[in-house]
Design brief:
endonuclease, 470 residues, alpha+beta, 17 helices, 48% helix, 3-stranded antiparallel beta sheet, globular
Length: 470
Amino acid sequence: MEAVQGLSEALPTAQVAGSPGVPPVSGVLSVADVSRSLSSVPVAADGPGMIDQLRELEDLKSLAAAKQARIAVAFDLSQRREQAAAGVPAKEQGAGVGAEIALARRESPARSGRLLGLAKALGTEMPRALAALESGELNEWRATLIVRETACLSAEDRCAVDEELAADAGTLAGAGDRAIIAAVRAAAYRRDPHSVAKRASHAVNDRTVTLRPAPDTMARLTALLPVAQGVAVYAALTRHADTARSNGDERSRGAVMADQLVENITGTPGGVSSIEVQLVMTDRTLFQGDSEPARLAGYGIVPAHWARQTVLGEETDTAEPTTWLRRLYTTPGTGELLAMDSKARIFPPGLRRFLQVRDDTCRTPYCDAPIRHHDHIIPWHQDGPTTSHNGQGLCEACNHTKETPGWTARTLPGPRHTVELQTPTGHTYHSTAPPPPGTGTPSRRREKRPKHLRQAKARKCARLRHSLAA
């Protein structure tokens, strides 16, 4: 416990020595020194001591977050100065800073942009909130809430809210997320009610629909709507579910609502009338009932039985689903998807589809955003070929970042497609395409199944072969 306290006292005065561009300074504590010291702290011998350690380590995490914020602001300033000296136009200065911070923090570029905005707001406009973060009174998430709820205010009003929150010691002490949001909103509204109301009126422009994977081959379809529309949609689905269940429908209330939502949007009871199955699977999974999982493009890993049922149409309620199966083959041994090439500057549809399936999501490390751009790793204007080996899938933001001066990329030899990304500060990061199903999987002896299960599996495989042949 004393060791943890010592680290907490030492960290604010520590300099980031030993990192690229910062020479080690004799006698100055580095972040690496702190890390080594922390790893040597033993677990307390009794319950009260363990709880004390947990609390002190939580304070240390908040202190580290505050230090990261200060470093991020300093790094942004230094990069802008370098870019200005290099003649970069003022409106383009700062490009790529958030992306490099994202790689260093192992975060997505989108989240890193929010973290950099948080650091700037705390460092320049809300010093008391930053002090609360350093002391452990706030954690990084709750500091983010304070900054987010004051984003519509001027710098002067944001400073005033910062002072108001700090004046009452009980505002943040013991407060949860909702309490902090309520206190900050009230303070912001008192300072500038017009800006708060204007922000709310403009929020309607942020309405959107998103899709995220969920466990057990499910997905979360989320709609951000104006409150009146959201309530109206939910009320209509609720009324339909109540009516259906009162008429004897045995599905759960939530299941009825979900099914009706799908039917209302797609116009088809099951939601699917014809599909092109972008499934990457082994032939053993498809035809021999193997248990090796498959990968569904745009979703992720799915169980083998679900993949077979989807190809057979058993996962839909449609009477005669039309299923298109796009076959994708891998190189024996390595699992590398077979290559395609083209002489065109723009990737042709088939090659774009190939990159989409091979890479699955944006290839920038820690970014799992959907692929929006099909990028030449070595740019086309530098004689980079339009091939699968020189191609990668990127989100829009990462593709623009890659074109910023100082960023370079190249492919590396290996069993699977690998890209090395180098940032303007000289740091390198590697990105390897996800392994196709069955890659490196040793052959397994299939357990003996009961005869009736083997016969049922054989009938399903026969139906599948017949449908594909047709």
